[in-house]
Amino acid sequence: MSEIAESIEEGPFSFKPIISPLENKLMWMLFAIPIAVYFEFSGQHGYAFIASMLAIMPLAWLMGKGTEEIAFRTSESLGGLLNATFGNAVEVIIGGLALYAAFRNPELTENMITVVQASLIGSILGNLLLVLGLAFLWGGLKHKKQQFNAQVSQTNGSLLLLALIGLVIPAAFAAANKGVSNDSIVSLSRWTALVLLAIYCLNMLFQLKTHATLYATDGHHDEEAELSQKQAITLLLVATLFVAWMAHILVGSIEHAAEQFNLPYLFIGVILLPFFGNAAEHMTAVSVARKDKMDMSISIAVGSSIQIALLVAPFMVLLGWVMGVGMSLQFGLFETITCLVAVLITNFIIQDGESNWFEGVMLIATYLIIAMAFLYM
Fold first, then answer.
1. Which CATH number characterizes residue 117's domain?
2. Which of 267, 272, 288, 273 shows the shortest CA–CA distance to 243?
3. How far is CA 85 from the centre of its chain?
4. Phi, psi of 147 (to 5 degrees)
5. For 66, what's the count of Cα atoms within 13 Å in the CB-facing half-sphere?
6. pLDDT (tens digit, 9 = 90+) per residue, 293-343?
7. Do 308 and 88 meet the contact criterion of CB atoms below 8 Å apart?
C-alpha cells in the first residue's frame, strides 16, 4: 500500500497528473463507474447502459495512456502497434462477454451476435473514416501539408483489402445461395477465420522481423515519460479490469437500452460501442497528428482496422466455435458494402503519402452519412 501511495504523490514519475480530475478533465467521467453500478443493482438497466458506456471512455483512455507510456521505450511503428492492440482490447472484452451471454441464454444469441458483428464493422468504419478524418483535420489545421511513409501506407492498404475479402466472401456466398443453411455459413466463416489469423501472424513477422526497416521510424522519443515502466503496466492492468467490469454491465443492459430508448441494435453496435470504446486510440491518433507524427497516427488508425479484420473478428468466430455459438463473418450486405467503401476511400487518400485538412473533412463526412443510415435501419 505504501508503494501505491508513494507512486500517486508528485515526483519524477507520478500518477497524480494523469488520474486527478483537476488536472485531467476527462477523469471526471470516472464518476460514471459508481453511477453505473448503482443503476445496475437498482434495476434501471437502460441508464446503466448509458453510465457504463460513459465510464468506458476515461478507462479506455487510461489503457491508452498506459500503453503509450510503455511505447515510449519502442520505435514509433511498434508504438502504434501497441496502441492499436490495446485499443482493440475493449472490442475483445465486449465481444467476448456478448458471446458468453449468448452461450448462457440461447434466446439472446441472435441479438448478441448482431451486436458483436456490428461493433466489429463499426470499429473498422470508425478508425478509417472518423479517427483518420479527425487526425487529418486536426493536424492539417496546424500544418498545411503533412507527409507520411507512402510505401507503408500502400502495404497496409493492400492488407486491408485482403482482410476485407474475409468479410466479403461470406456475405457474397450467402447472397448468391439464398437457400444455404446458416450452418454452412458458420462453417465457412470458421475456416476463413483460421486463414485470416495465419495472415495476421505472417504480417507481424513481415512488420517486426523480415522488413522491420521499412516500418522503422522514430519521433516520439523526444517526449518524456510520465510513468515508470512498472507504473505504466500497473495502470494498464487496473484500467483493463475496470473496463471488463463496465463492459459486463454494458452487455447485460443492451437489450433494455434498445427497448427503452428505441435504438436499433445495429446503431448501438456500429456507432455507439466503437465510438465510446475506442476513445483511447481516437485521442492518441488525433493528438500525435497535431504534433505532425503522421506515421504513428496512421499506424494506430489503419493498424487498428487491420487488427479488427485479421485478429479480433476471427478470434470472435473461433471463440464462438468453442462456446458452441454460431458466430460468423456474414455481417450483412449493407454493412459489408459500407466497410468496402471505407477501405477504398482510405486507400485512395493515403496512397500519395500526403494529407491535408480537407481530406479529413471528406472522411468525416462519409462517416456521418453512414452513421445516419444505420440510425434509420
1. 1.20.1420.30
2. 273
3. 8
4. -120, 155
5. 21
6. 888 888 888 888 888 999 999 999 999 999 999 999 988 888 888 998 899
7. yes
* Contact (Cβ atoms closer than 8 angstroms) between residue 273 and residue 119: yes
The residues, ordered by sequence, that sit 6+ positions from 96 with a Cβ below 8 Å of its Cβ are 316, 319
Domain that holds residue 219: 77-224+243-375
The tally of CA atoms less than 13 A away on the side-chain side of residue 112 is: 27
Which class for 12: exposed (0-12), middle (13-18), buried (19 or more C-beta within 10 A)? exposed
* Domain assignment of residue 133, yes or no: yes
C-beta separation of 247 from 93 below 8 A: yes
Here the cell at position 186 is 458458420
How many domains does the chain divide into? Answer: 1
Which DSSP string do the residues of 75-126 spell out, in sequence order?
-HHHHHHHHHHHHTHHHHHHHHHHHHHHHH-GGGHHHHHHHHHHHHHHHHHI
Give which of 107, 110, 92 is closest to 247, Cα–Cα.
92
Question: How many whole angstroms separate alpha carbon 217 and alpha carbon 295?
Answer: 8
pTM beyond 0.85: no
- Summarised one tens digit per residue, pLDDT across range 97-122 is 999 999 998 888 888 998 899 889 99
Residue 307 resides in a domain: yes
Measured N-to-C along each axis, helices 76-87 and 279-290 cross at an angle, to the nearest 10 degrees, of: 150
Whether residue 26 lies inside any domain: the answer is: no
